[in-house]
Write the structure tokens for this entry.
Amino acid sequence: MSALSHPLERVTCIRGDITREEVDVIVNAANESLMGGGGVDGAIHRAAGPGLVDECVSRFPEGCPTGEARLTAGHRLSALHVLHTVGPKWRGGAEGEAQSLAACYANCIAIAEREGLHSMSFPAISCGVYGYPHREAASVAFEALSSALERAPGVQTVRMVLFSEDLLEVFHLALDAAKQRGT
């Protein structure tokens, strides 16, 4: 596979505020209730306004299980849509955390492809209060994105929007390593 055809060539890492992303869809590292919370989830809900909670409550009263994703409008965000996905809580790594985290990325890409969304921004899912070790989370993210993007030619731009320089460095290194491995 040539470097230009590698699916991860569509992925970049930046430091920034995901609520300011001007893309088709931003991904929310949500909790199962989809009602907002702390970290990225709270920031997205605050920026989107009360219409986001109203839509989540009316369309998804059962919430969202870990590893799955739900699509809503972006409301007051610059992004047209929000994909809410629930990452796993870190419990030491032997309870299926990697599979659940990979499912978050894969399900978001699949929904974006199905809905004709071409540009999207992800946070570092599960790397905040859910305690997922950053290096491991980045490795899982890029392996999952590589595989999912192979099946999603319509998703042209994927940005990992990271909130700190340390996290940005970890994700940059993991992305470079994944590209070199051809994952």
Remarks:
- The mean pLDDT is 95.
